[in-house]
Design a protein that fits this description.
4 helices, five-stranded antiparallel beta sheet, rod-shaped
């Protein structure tokens, strides 16, 4: 038993250290990728903390197996370099006897990870999807970055460019919208100011524009050109590209990443 405790103790330190380093690297990658979309957008710090906490689930799934590998290599490597393995073998201790406590701990971790992957990870993923959806609903301008066109995944059939966005509101400044929903016509809408909101059922994005122009040309007859000036104008766009779910996680649509084996 003393020998087993010694072997297990040699694994604990490297396991915890490597697990902390791997999770730190995953967190650093996540923050570098998402910080620009979350920080300075007027979101409650508790929401950001919850978002990070839910992302820890998939990080743990990846970090634990890698930490077990690192801990095993470091622990038995140290035993070998200190000639402790030679002393154990000379004392009549077999290799299987040395590996037995490690195999027991690994078996417990395997069962724990199975339960975690089957029950906890899917719930964390579905709650993460719902939280991201609620964030986008609360701040639709998170999808619109200043000086960058929106993609087809964000808004099919529309491309939006805003020179300036505001962290404390859904207002936009110097807006340009390319309407690609009608292939036979080329429609461009420009406005000095705009505001983005969702419809009551979150199926449409409503953009209220002020002080702008609508330029329309027929692709079949380039001599047909129309220009309209407006003080106020509303553009309604389908929100299907935002992948909305209901805020209730139990009623949200589940995919292969959010379903358990039951």
């Amino acid at each position: 038993m003393i020998l087993w405790r010694h072997i297990i103790k040699g694994h604990i330190g490297p396991f915890l250290f490597s697990n902390a380093i791997i999770i730190f690297l995953f967190l650093l990658q996540f923050l570098m990728k998402r910080a620009g979309d979350l920080v300075g957008k007027g979101l409650n710090p508790l929401v950001i903390i919850e978002l990070i906490s839910l992302n820890l689930a998939w990080m743990i799934v990846l970090s634990v197996p890698m930490s077990v590998l690192v801990a095993t290599l470091m622990a038995f490597g140290k035993l070998s370099s200190d000639n402790e393995i030679v002393v154990m073998r000379a004392s009549g201790v077999s290799l299987y006897h040395m590996l037995f406590p490690v195999l027991v701990i690994v078996g417990a971790l395997t069962y724990g990870l199975y339960y975690f992957n089957d029950r906890i990870l899917p719930e964390a993923n579905i709650r993460l999807q719902v939280l991201l959806t609620d964030i986008v609903r609360m701040k639709p301008t998170l999808t619109i970055q200043a000086g960058v066109f929106t993609s087809d995944e964000d808004l099919p059939n529309f491309r939006i460019l805003a020179k300036k966005t505001f962290s404390t509101s859904n207002d936009l400044q110097d807006v340009t919208i390319y309407d690609l929903s009608r292939p036979n016509k080329n429609v461009v809408v420009t406005a000095h100011r705009g505001k983005v909101n969702f419809s009551s059922d979150f199926t449409e994005i409503l953009m209220d524009l002020q002080d702008g122009e609508i330029h329309e040309i027929d692709n079949g007859d380039f001599r047909s050109y129309r220009k309209l000036k407006f003080m106020r104008h509303r553009v309604a766009m389908s929100a299907s590209g935002f992948g909305f779910q209901r805020s209730d996680a139990s009623k949200a649509h589940r995919d292969d990443r959010t379903m358990s084996s039951e």
